[in-house]
Amino acid sequence: MTPWDAFFHHYVQKIFSEKRCVIDIGGGLRAVRGRGNRYEPSRAWLSSLIEKVNYKIMDPVPDYRPDLIGDIEYLPFQDNTQEAIICLAVLEHVQDPWKACREIRRVLIPGGFCLLYVPFLYYYHAEKGYYKDYWRFTQDALSLLLQDFTEVDIQNVRGAIETWLHLSPFGKCTPLRAFCRWCDKAYGKIASRQVSGYYVFCVK
């Protein structure tokens, strides 16, 4: 398992074992068939965790059958009311990610959890009629965006060489991915700031 996959597994399990209510903004877990704009079979292992909590998907449009319709820049929750928020690959599509992060922190209870994913070196991926693509985030930007949280744990996704492959036409070739990952480790690029993106776990 890669370091970023291990990070994701660890914190998702922590969220679903320690909190009773989870809001998935944008449905980024992609673990429930028929809810959210995509389903990812490799995330099926999450279904047993989701069944144990009050899990709701929030999206800005009704098209993909979310539980809640809402805008991340104006979250439809009162202050200090939400136990956990998951927000994967959403902030790049938000006009004001600073406001979105303030909103997430506002609605979380003290000690509440937030799991984020944001891209850095990644291709343009707007979806017409659904969302635009505004931003990319460095680790420095994340430190600034999330400075008001009491704990912030950041994990890069892919090293520099594997990131280059991921952006190329050969990015889905498993043997090449494994080779590039080995090169990242061998040449010390696994900890490079030239990465595909970041997972972040925050505590209010």
Overview of this structure, please?
With 204 residues, this protein is of the alpha/beta class. Helix content is 29%, strand content 23%. It has six helices and seven strands; from the N terminus they run αβαβββαβαβααβ. It has helices at residues 3-18, 47-50, 97-107, 139-145, 160-167, 174-186, and strands spanning 21-25, 54-59, 68-69, 82-88, 108-119, 151-157, 197-203. The chain has a seven-stranded mixed beta sheet. α2 (47-50) links the parallel β1 (21-25) and β2. α5 (160-167) packs antiparallel against α6 (174-186). The longest helix is centred in the N-terminal third of the chain and has 16 residues, at 3-18. It is globular and about 50 Å long. The relative contact order is 0.16. The mean pLDDT is 93.
**SS element count, helices:** 6
H-E string:
HEHEEEHEHEHHE
Structural class: alpha/beta
Q: Approximately how much helix is present in the residues?
A: 25-40%
State mean pLDDT (0 to 100 scale): 93
- Strand order across the biggest sheet? 3-2-1-4-5-7-6
Question: What is the first-to-last residue Cα distance?
Answer: 29 Å
Q: Give the biggest beta sheet.
A: 7 strands, mixed
What's the alpha carbon Rg, rounded to whole Å?
Answer: 17 Å
General form: globular
By DSSP, the count of extended strands is 7
Our estimate of the beta-strand percent is: 15-25%
Poorly predicted runs: none
